[in-house]
Amino acid sequence: MSDATRAGSRTGDGTRxxxxxxxxxxxxxxxxxxxxxxxxxxxxxxxxxxxxxGRDENPTWTLLExxxxxxxxxxxxxxxxxxxxxxxxxxxxVLFSQLRAGDAVVLPSDGYQVLxxxxxxxxxxxxxxxxxxxxxxxxxxxxxxxRLLWIESxxxxxxxxxxxxxxxxxxxxxxxxxxxDNTLATPLGQRPLELGADFSVASGTKxxxxxxxxxLGYVAGRDxxxxxxxxxxxxxxxxIAGPMEAWLAHRSIATLQLRVDRQNATALAVAEALKQRPxxxxxxxxxxxxxxxxKIASQQMRRYGCVVSFTLPTRARAERFLQALRLxxxxxxxxxxxxxxxxxxRWGGDAVPEGFIRMSVGAEDPEDLIADxxxxxxxxxx
Length: 382
Prior knowledge:
The structure is a single chain. The chain is built from twelve helices and twelve strands. It has helices at about 5-10, 15-20, 60-70, 85-100, 115-125, 165-175, 225-235, 245-255, 255-275, 295-300, 315-325, 365-380; strands spanning about 80-85, 105-110, 130, 150, 175-180, 200-205, 215-220, 280-285, 305-310, 330, 340-345, 355-360. The strands form two sheets. A seven-stranded mixed β-sheet has the order 1-7-6-5-4-2-3, sandwiched between helices. Helix 5 links the parallel strand 2 (about 105-110) and strand 3 (about 130). The chain is globular, with a radius of gyration of 21 Å.
């Protein structure tokens, strides 16, 4: 029985996460082998076999890639997963391995704030870049003739959601590839490959690893030729994950379902509490029944994520609020077991109001976290 088949037979998300990617048991050996630190391997004779050189392959990557593949596409043998040094390394590998001068790509206009830098580089290489918002499946309007459609759903930081099935079907009908940034959802919240995407891409820095101590990215894909190009790009650029980071990531996946369920439930409770505050506007969380994205999110997501976004009246009010928090760290990134929040406009790359807050809900007791938020709102009032 193949590893993928065994993974598919474990139907529960918790069971799958705990067992994902583990090797066959060997007496006296650890259940999860330690990281393999190796720049080269013994290689007498012909240069064949699974491990030739440290930039190409590593046994620690292999186990992690198998684990992520079991979460992204349980029970499937035709999906390949590759890990990278960061989420941006993974994103870049897909874009720059699949596009060439004269091609057109569709990017979300409301996506991750580094995407404008990516756009400038693609255009410098002669690639036409088109953009449209995530909401309302607006990318369909600029899809004609594109080589690649890049979807970010839910979008970061606005938390809009698009119909991935619909967009993927439309793109494939005209011969375009489809990549979905699945960072906010995680594989336990959404499986883009099952929704029709060719690539599922994510920053493992966030909730996948969940402790704020690892930079990591990955690409999972079902097209062998396209993934071969991604693998070749990783080799050329050398954007490889360190063995210690890969081992830490694999270890962390075992608690993914526990963390995700706790954080998602608390995020919904936080959003419900913030709804009651008159100074809060623009509140977004796909799990809220009245959120603009809830209908389509409920059709394609199994969990809604740990990020809540909202706006306070002014920049000064938002900064006072953040300073008054005791259980929430003022930091960027999201998905960690300790709650974080930040005023996103301080980076300058997101088209959001000055008082816009992106909050990542951690694993604290929900009652304690909500009490801290409400107290900070009270104390930050003028």
